[in-house]
Amino acid sequence: QVQLVESGGGLVQPGGSLRLSCVVSGTIFSTYAMGWYRQTPGKQRELVADIISGGGSRTNYADSVKGRFAISRDNAKNTVYLQMSSLKPEDTAVYYCNAGKYRGSAYYPYHDMWGQGTQVTVSS
User: Fold this and answer.
1) Which of 39, 12, 9 has the alpha carbon at shortest distance from 122?
2) DSSP annotation of 42
3) CA distance 44 to 67
4) Residue 37, C-beta contacts closer than 8 angstroms, at least 6 positions apart
C-alpha cells in the first residue's frame, strides 16, 4: 500500500520559514517525480513546486513562490522536502505532496498518490 505522509506545517509569522517533509512508503520512491501542491477553501489545488525523479535536480516553481521556496528530495530517506522562506499571509493553505511524472516539461500528478495534507498558517 502506497502512503504519503506530510509533516512540518504550523503557524508562522510573516517573513518566517518552515520546512515541510513528505515520506513515501510502499513503492520505489526514486522512480517518481514529486510535487507539492496547496489548496485554500473554495479554490482549486495549485501546483507549487515539482522535482524530477531519480537523482536529477531539475525543479519547477509557481511564479508566486519563485525565489522563496525550494523543493528537494532524499531518495535514501524516501522523502521530499519543501523549504519555505519569506512566508506571506497568502501562503496560508493546506499543503499536499504528490507522486507523479512528467509529460514533456509539465508535471502530471498521479491521482491516487496524495498525502493527507499539512496546514500552514502565516499570520502575526
Assistant:
1) 12
2) T
3) 23
4) 45, 46, 47, 48, 95, 96, 97, 98, 109
Distance CA 18, CA 30 (A): 24
| Bridge partner list, 123 | none
Three-class SS state of 77: helix
Residue 110's CB is within 10 A of a number of other CB atoms, namely 14
User: What's the grid cell of residue 81?
Assistant: 522536502
pLDDT tens, residue by residue, 71-80: 999 999 999 9
pLDDT tens per residue, range 1-16? 899 999 999 999 999 9
Distance CA 122, CA 124 (A): 7
Taking the alpha carbons at both ends of the chain, their separation in whole angstroms is: 40
Low-confidence ranges of the chain (pLDDT < 70): none
